[in-house]
Amino acid sequence: MDKLWTELAAAQQATPSLRALFAQNPDRFAEFSAGLDDLLLDYSKTGLTETTRALLLQLAEATEVAQKRDAMFAGEKINTTENRAVLHTALRNIANTPVYVDGADVMPEVNKTFDALFKFAQAVRAGEITAADGGAFSDVINIGIGGSDLGPAMVTGALAPYHDGPRVHFVSNVDGAHLADTIRPLDPARTLIIVASKTFTTIETMTNAHSARQWIVEALGEQAVARHFAAVSTALDKGAVFGILPERTFGFWDWVGGRYSIWSAIGLPVMLAIGPENFREFLTGAHEMDQHFRTAPFANNLPVLLALTGIWHRNICGHAARAVLPYDQRLARFPAYLQQLDMESNGKRVRKDGSAVTQATGPLVWGEPGTNGQHAFYQLLHQGTAVIPCEFLIAAQGHEPAMREHHNLLIANCLAQTRALMLGRTLEEAHGNPHRVFPGNRPSVTIAYNKLTPRTLGRLIALYEHRVFVEAAIWGINAFDQWGVELGKELATGLLPIVASGRPDQSADSSTAGLVLHLTKKDTA
Ligand code: F6P
């Protein structure tokens, strides 16, 4: 395997510029793109050549990506540090084939939970499950954080054209501003609150949930809690303590990671907004990508190819970041969603066996929708000293046919950016003005699809999930734990009484003690 890494590094040194690659091969686009129906992955504007692609495919083989993939789908406990299976794919297994964990088929329980969720969502949407006063709910607040927020928040935003249910709001931050600003315009009598937490212990979510409970109780009385709250958790008993009825408490399982939980009961706010049928379409899209990932030869396999561009840029070219740039305003939260998916999964420094990794692992993932970003940070992408590979996402059609001109502009801008990054502008082309020189040779991939439908979104998310999986498999790390978030949580718990009292003890370092004193001064304006 070391030999493959060495060969890749040597081949990279000999790789012609992107300008040259396109000049040499008029069929480069056709040869360096792949698709699944209308979903197209164009990676021709990366430096991959036939040679380096072949070497990367060998690397995927040598690191047993296919075997690891099959182990995941088969329900093996591949999350070894938590001794858990990884089966978010079972949640969208609309083919309903059996999926075994510890010898038991999980599908009957999955189907039962979806039946209950869809029934609940439909009844709320139809005004059959009502608020305490018998009227319909007009608004829903989802209280959750991380995977219990980013997935439903991103998907709800992305599928706005499909909304025909109650308005859905999201509160995640423990900063009281988030809850306060969300509830200010809302009527408690018309509001349903979902407390979404895999563990039902996350301090931010529990704090927000208790304050929201108080808001309902103050306005409507204690007895209204049962009518105005629902819960989503793997810890079903904990919802009852909060006063949430068992029939409004929806479970999922420890084999669903938080950042992979949008397909589970965590998707309830989405089901309320767009309805069960559209949610099923969303699951179908993801299932189609699962099938593609399982069966397509690696040379045409979208998640594998996207992962190989990631490995190429991170490990062979040494680029520490990647930008996700959706030319699709409704995907505004997609970069934030991918940040958790990718960085919480692959921000690791030891392999599964505990030994230190010798390759760089997950890059910094960030981004904003285009065209907005063009007028903000693209300057650095084009002329900064760091090379940041970019991932562009673009639909052939918007949901606003009457605004086709807008969409043509969007497409033209997206393609112009990929072309400008690739071609650059030489000193000669810049008439000798160094300030107007663009180095070019800056890589990008473009993911294009017909329209941002529930099905397309399902495919897109699953594409990125499996990309993260393949990269982790090549690095030999566990993409499914997140021990790196623990230390900060422990220290915050220890600091809370100190902040509350305003009196740091001897154990605090001078910076922390000084900041506590500064921030808790009674006269802080
Ligand atoms: O702190 C990280 C994390 O555990 C994420 O992995 C998770 O999505 C988030 O917190 C929220 O956790 P929970 O759903 O248990 O409240």
UniProtKB/TrEMBL annotation:
Keyword Isomerase carried by entry: yes
Pfam families: PGI
Protein origin, superkingdom: Bacteria
InterPro entries listed in its UniProt record: G6P_Isomerase (IPR001672), G6P_Isomerase_C (IPR023096), Phosphoglucose_isomerase_CS (IPR018189), SIS_dom_sf (IPR046348), SIS_PGI_1 (IPR035476), SIS_PGI_2 (IPR035482)
Subcellular location: Cytoplasm
Keyword Isomerase annotated: yes
GO molecular function: isomerase activity
Alphabetic keyword roster: Cytoplasm, Gluconeogenesis, Glycolysis, Isomerase
Pathway, per record: Carbohydrate degradation; glycolysis; D-glyceraldehyde 3-phosphate and glycerone phosphate from D-glucose: step 2/4; Carbohydrate biosynthesis; gluconeogenesis
Catalysed reactions, semicolon-separated: alpha-D-glucose 6-phosphate = beta-D-fructose 6-phosphate
EC number: 5.3.1.9
Active site: E344 (proton donor), H375, K489
First-level EC class: isomerase
Reported function: Catalyzes the reversible isomerization of glucose-6-phosphate to fructose-6-phosphate.
Family stated for the protein in its record: Belongs to the GPI family.
Protein's name according to its UniProt entry: Glucose-6-phosphate isomerase
Source species: Acidocella aquatica
